[in-house]
Write a structure and sequence with these properties.
alpha/beta, globular, binds ligand 7PJ, about 270 residues, 8 strands
């Protein structure tokens, strides 16, 4: 899988095939409803579809490899029956990623930044697959207990610098990585806002930047909105991200973010 990062922001549509995800968990569990969601995202202009079978919401229950595979592989096959769109596999488990790649996924999205499963770095090396490494303070079970940073942006950047050097030492070059500051993963509302304000600083790492802000709770806390009413606010943040040089936006409502980023790009390219 080779991803082109040009002047256009890539929009990654979220396909959660979990019974307990915070916003759309349980909505897409029958084959028909998964297929409908895929078609909606394709028609709306998605560039990538991100398939995830393990909820990473705060305090979520862990899922076995077998259960996760039972969730994600049929979804990947349904995408492949319809389209050659790049597919990312949202997992921290190398075994799940390996089987997903065999079914046609072409990007690994590891919210642990290659920390939870030591086999992930070997898989990345053997396959040359692009890898999204996300920052998280703590683990999904404790990350929102009492997040603390002296300088949230500096600390996330030094986390990436360490991860990229470690990966290089394990035979995976920097150019294979996409970095993601991990909105909502061990962050307060204030931390999330600081990350979004100072997004341009992450580009200094020399890797494409991904942001996953869609429907997250900081939007709900700031605006007093329930999870199913956060798509307009999500699209507004998408436009800001596009202006600040983000390469990939991971969102639930693909259509609204496509509109937002195409406008941001048109403004940027005007005289
Ligand atoms: C993210 C993710 C994110 C990346 C989730 C949700 C929670 N992967 N997986 N970045 N969030 N790379 O769907 O909002 O922010 S799961």
């Amino acid at each position: 899988m080779h991803l082109e990062f040009g002047p256009k922001v890539l929009v990654m549509g979220i396909l959660n095939v979990t019974p307990d995800s915070f916003s759309d968990g349980g909505c897409f569990l029958s084959e028909g409803s998964i297929a409908t969601q895929i078609d909606t995202m394709l028609q709306a202009g998605a560039d990538i579809i991100d398939v995830g079978g393990e909820s990473t919401r705060p305090f979520a229950e862990p899922v076995s490899i077998a259960e996760e595979l039972d969730r994600v592989l049929p979804a990947i096959r349904l995408i492949r029956q319809r389209s050659a769109i790049p597919i990312s596999i949202d997992t921290t488990k190398a075994e799940v990623a390996r089987k997903a790649l065999a079914e046609g996924a072409g990007i690994i999205n590891d919210i642990s930044g290659l920390r939870f499963d030591r086999d992930m770095v070997s898989l990345a090396r053997e396959t040359g697959t692009p890898v999204i490494i996300m920052h998280m303070q703590g683990t999904p079970s404790d990350m929102q207990v009492d997040p603390h940073y002296d300088d949230v942006v500096a600390e996330i950047k030094s986390f990436f610098a360490e991860r990229l050097a470690w990966a290089e030492g394990n035979g995976v070059p920097r150019k294979q990585f996409i970095v993601d500051p991990g909105i909502g993963f061990g962050k307060t509302v204030g931390h999330n806002l600081t990350i979004l304000k100072r997004l341009a600083e992450f580009s200094e790492l020399g890797c494409p930047v991904l942001i996953g802000h869609s429907r997250k709770s900081f939007i709900g806390k700031l605006l007093g909105l329930e999870v199913d009413a956060r798509d307009a606010a999500t699209a507004a943040i998408s436009a800001l991200c596009a202006q600040k040089g983000v390469s990939i936006l991971r969102v639930h409502d693909v259509g609204m973010t496509v509109q937002a980023v195409r406008l941001a790009e048109a403004i940027e390219q005007s005289e």
